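Renewal narrative, Specific Aim 1. Our central claim is that a sequence can be written position by position from structural information alone. The example that follows is taken directly from our test logs and has not been curated for this report. It begins with the structure tokens describing the chain, in the order in which they were read.
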């Protein structure tokens, strides 16, 4: 199969490496000329695990911008020659698009590619936060009959970059869980959860530009029993898309899921209701750990074992539990009463903090290098959903405000230097 990877940060390089080693055709969508220079300098992607580095080449390259005009050209690397095209040069259909950019960059990055994406295409989202696929459906694919299939993933692999296009797979015992968004899910999102529109309309990050990043790691959602990752056990997705679809589009989605399930990344498929639970649990975990560690410049483990850290976690979880119940995102009352109680959410957060005690959150890493953060898709998502359903969220509101103020003050300080 052919996969286009949008976002060549940590997770983008990790997924691209495994897809290429599984003999799939992989096109890296490079953001700018600097990314091209970095790729050439590294002579491909370097994948490292347990101290052993492997050079992975033979990627197709496509420059998402138009910095080199509208003409394909060849560029020599130390060990091979590769062809580079610009996105404006080609109308070739995109079969599978893997989106690993920062959440706030996703929409603007996908828009130029929409003319090459149709019903037979599949978009796989591997990002932090919530609200991206809903906004993409509304802004880019308003006609449910022609939009591509959406697959949302939660990644728990620990990985980081030592340099551009050099990914170190540290927590390689992690997992990837995938769920297919039912087509009527977007109808519900636009009609009964139109708070998503407000979430994006007042989201200043929509106009921001930044770098593709990594997913946070070791989200412990052991209460969920995933579908076995044996591809032979994956039945046709026609029963999970819950809408009339052509045979070709269903077959294409099946093939995409099977390709991911075969990757040696502990990949699992889950029905959408189970996947929604997993995504929301990760949202709450990230909303507790990311902004607090970024503000305090501390590691994840520093939040536990101290009364004040526990209080902050409790406040965020209290608000999240109320918002999730009021929103109707989870309709099963038993699930709400067990997995989305505040005390249960708090235990999840504490467990992750302990499991990743020595790690720095992705938001802290963003803050250190003055990148815009994904707070609008974490705490900001909870805050605006709370406003939609009349649930006060003062702690999440304050965390969003402080993270944004911290960023602006840092940028202002840098400008004076």
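The sequence written for that structure reads:
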């Amino acid at each position: 199969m052919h996969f286009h990877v949008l976002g060549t940060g940590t997770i983008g390089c990790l997924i691209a490496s495994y897809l290429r080693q599984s003999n799939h055709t992989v096109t890296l969508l490079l953001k700018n000329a600097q990314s091209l220079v970095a790729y050439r300098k590294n002579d491909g992607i370097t994948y490292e695990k347990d101290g052993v580095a492997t050079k992975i080449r033979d990627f197709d390259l496509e420059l998402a911008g138009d910095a080199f005009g509208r003409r394909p050209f060849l560029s020599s690397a130390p060990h091979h020659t590769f062809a580079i095209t610009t996105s404006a040069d080609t109308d070739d259909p995109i079969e599978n698009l893997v989106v690993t950019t920062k959440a706030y960059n996703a929409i603007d990055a996908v828009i130029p590619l929409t003319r090459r994406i149709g019903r037979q295409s599949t978009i796989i989202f591997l990002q932090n936060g919530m609200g991206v696929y809903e906004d993409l459906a509304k802004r880019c694919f308003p006609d449910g009959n022609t939009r591509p299939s959406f697959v949302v993933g939660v990644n728990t692999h620990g990985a980081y970059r030592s340099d551009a296009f050099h990914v170190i797979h540290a927590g390689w015992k992690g997992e990837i869980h995938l769920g297919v968004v039912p087509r009527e899910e977007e109808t519900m999102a636009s009609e009964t959860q139109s708070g998503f529109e407000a979430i994006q309309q007042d989201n200043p990050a929509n106009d921001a530009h930044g770098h593709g990043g990594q997913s946070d790691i070791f989200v412990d959602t052991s209460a969920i029993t995933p579908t076995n990752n044996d591809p032979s056990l994956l039945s046709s997705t026609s029963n999970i898309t819950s809408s009339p679809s052509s045979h070709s589009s269903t077959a294409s989605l099946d093939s995409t899921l099977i390709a991911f399930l075969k990757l040696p990344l502990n990949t699992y498929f889950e029905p959408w209701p189970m996947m929604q639970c997993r995504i929301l649990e990760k949202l709450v975990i990230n909303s507790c750990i990311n902004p607090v560690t970024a503000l305090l410049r501390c590691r994840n483990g520093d939040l536990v074992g101290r009364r004040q850290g526990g209080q902050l976690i409790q406040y965020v979880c209290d608000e999240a539990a109320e918002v999730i119940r009021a929103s109707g995102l989870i309709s099963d009352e038993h699930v709400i009463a067990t997995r989305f109680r505040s005390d249960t959410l708090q235990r999840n957060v504490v467990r992750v903090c302990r499991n990743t005690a020595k790690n720095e959150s992705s938001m802290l890493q963003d803050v250190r290098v003055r990148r815009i953060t994904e707070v609008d898709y974490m705490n900001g998502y909870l805050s605006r959903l709370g406003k939609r359903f009349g649930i006060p969220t003062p702690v999440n509101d304050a965390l969003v405000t402080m993270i944004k103020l911290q960023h602006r003050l840092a940028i202002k300080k840098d400008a004076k230097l």
